Amino acid sequence: MTKVPDDLHYTKDHEWVRVEGKKATIGITDHAQHELTDIVFVELPKLGKVLKAHEKLGVVESVKSASEIYAPVSGKVIEVNDTLQDSPEAVNKDPYGSGWVATVEVSDPNEVKGLLNAAGYKKHIGE
After folding, report:
1. Minimal CA–CA distance to 51: which of 69, 33, 28?
2. For the CA atoms of the chain, what is the radius of gyration?
3. Residue range of the domain that includes 61
4. Domain count, the chain
5. Which residues share a beta bridge with 103?
6. Is residue 101 part of a domain?
7. Is residue 1 part of a domain?
8. Is the dihedral of CA 90, 29, 13, 106 positive or negative?
9. What confidence tens digit (pLDDT) does each residue in 61-83 have?
10. 50 in any annotated domain
11. How far is Cα 64 from Cα 37, in angstroms, rounded to an integer?
């Protein structure tokens, strides 16, 4: 059974976002990391990059395939998880904790309303 924490928001492209004030931490879901299998590389965004919602944030590569990571919300990248450069498997081990990808300063808080809640995401993935 896939983990889908209730306190996060989700995209149909399998990203999660935790919004705390103007700060949004982003990663890929447990479902996504299961589908990708063993993650071997994560391309992180550049600090200071300004992203629009649904724009490419980075790339995650596994032994099986590569997938783009999209920004669930618009904002400026203020932090990246450099640990993933040496330990990309953290995404497999703890996708909602140590496997986070980036943090952005949210430019439009209303965009969060357009994302899926945990129940909506579970329905989307068929659980």
Report:
1. 69
2. 13
3. 9-109
4. 1
5. 25, 79
6. yes
7. no
8. negative
9. 999 899 999 999 999 999 999 99
10. yes
11. 7
Determine the Cα–Cα distance for residues 72 and 11; give it in Å rounded to an integer: 6
Over the stretch 78-100, which tens digit does the pLDDT of each residue have?
Answer: 999 999 999 999 999 999 999 99
Contacting residues for 89 by C-beta, under 8 A, at least 6 apart: 38, 39, 40
Angle at 24 between CA 20 and CA 27, to 5 degrees: 125
Q: Is the pLDDT of residue 1 over 80?
A: no
How far is it, in rounded angstroms, from Cα 71 to Cα 34? 20
Structure tokens at 74: 């618009």
pTM of the model: 0.96
**Which CATH number goes with the domain that contains 41?**
2.40.50.100
DSSP 8-class letter at 104: E
